[in-house]
Amino acid sequence: EAQVTQNPRYLITVTGKKLTVTCSQNMNHEYMSWYRQDPGLGLRQIYYSMNVEVTDKGDVPEGYKVSRKEKRNFPLILESPSPNQTSLYFCASSRGTSDVETQYFGPGTRLLVL
Amino acid sequence: GQNIDQPTEMTATEGAIVQINCTYQTSGFNGLFWYQQHAGEAPTFLSYNVLDGLEEKGRFSSFLSRSKGYSYLLLKELQMKDSASYLCAAVDSNYQLIWGAGTKLIIKP
């Protein structure tokens, strides 16, 4: 089944404790992206990647890191989480960006930083 | 700057019709997406318009006017399961998606 998976789905942590949210897609997509979604603000892009070893900042990259060592994986790293990073996070992928492509979303990771 | 506007919340009755509007301002334009998102779940693709006019898909239709920077999503024969948020996203000249904040649709029996 074609899908985007994220782990964990739910996470409670404390300020400053490094964490990683994994994202994997099995559709051989070139483009992958991370979003956060907060009430009233909609989806805001954190980072995106157009291909392996190519990553770019989105609208709200501060406090986050990503890597794209393999085509299928795009982990999101919070080196020192803070309470303002409490949010619902979505990973998404699409075939590419040379044309308009539908983005497919993972199930979401709900993060609470105490 | 780039901007997408859509109403925050709408209420409609089961069996009725509702129209959710979206206006956009982007650097270049390569089409507009509508996604549906049930509470706590991932957004799922509904439609994509790049040419002016109405596209119909069953109970859902989407309209685009490029000259007016305007789109709407029309939902007919509303069902309780249509209660969700509807996200509008415009594609800019770099093929990046510019997302609206979403419209929460509440369906009442």
Describe the protein's architecture and organization:
The complex is a heterodimer of chains A (114) and B (109). Chain A has 114 residues and is mostly beta strands. Chain A has strands spanning 4-7, 10-13, 19-25, 31-38, 42-51, 54-57, 65-66, 76-78, 87-94, 104-105, 109-113. In chain A, the strands form two sheets. In chain A, strands 2, 4, 5, 6, 9, 10 and 11 form a seven-stranded mixed beta sheet that branches. In chain A, strands 1-3-8-7 form a four-stranded antiparallel beta sheet, with no helix packed on it. The model of chain A has no long low-confidence stretch (mean pLDDT 94). By secondary structure, chain B is mainly β. Chain B is built from no helices and eleven strands. Chain B has strands at 3-5, 9-13, 18-25, 32-37, 44-49, 53-57, 60-65, 70-75, 84-91, 97-99, 103-108. The relative contact order of chain B is 0.35. The mean pLDDT of chain B is 95. At the A-B interface, strand 5 and strand 10 of A face strand 5 and strand 9 of B.
List keywords for this structure.
heterodimer; A: 114 residues; mainly beta; 7-stranded mixed sheet; 4-stranded antiparallel sheet; 11 strands; B: 109 residues; 6-stranded mixed sheet; 5-stranded antiparallel sheet; 0% helix
Task: Give the overall average pLDDT of chain B.
Answer: 95
Give the structural class of chain A.
mainly beta
Order of helices and strands of chain B: EEEEEEEEEEE
Shape of chain B: globular
Largest sheet report of chain B = 6 strands, mixed
Short synopsis of the structure:
The complex is a heterodimer of chains A (114) and B (109). Chain A is an all-beta fold. Chain A has strands at residues 4-7, 10-13, 19-25, 31-38, 42-51, 54-57, 65-66, 76-78, 87-94, 104-105, 109-113.
